[in-house]
Amino acid sequence: QVQLVESGGGLVQAGGSLRLSCAASGSIFSINAMGWYRQVPGKQRELVATITSGGSTKYADSVKGRFTISRDNAKNTVYLQMNSLKVEDTAVYYCNAEWGRIPLHYWGQGTQVTVSS
What we know:
This protein is mainly β.
């Protein structure tokens, strides 16, 4: 099993920046990729960015050029640097880990990001 603990959410004005962190623990050696998803009430959870164990990244079109996903393998932590934030980035952000051959997906508890105009 994998445990994910997120931090770094909060309230920021449009145009500002935030950095989210996700610390993984447990059976981390079988993690294939980690990522960030977000969800607003009444809508489906959507992919924001992912990073594989090899360092390959993928971004949603809506965040390309503004958000950067990175990882610190020594700390078993994934980061999401969010710049030039927009009101429409307001959501609960969830950390995700893709694990094993099947694969299984593990989720963090979520952290609220609110961008005010």
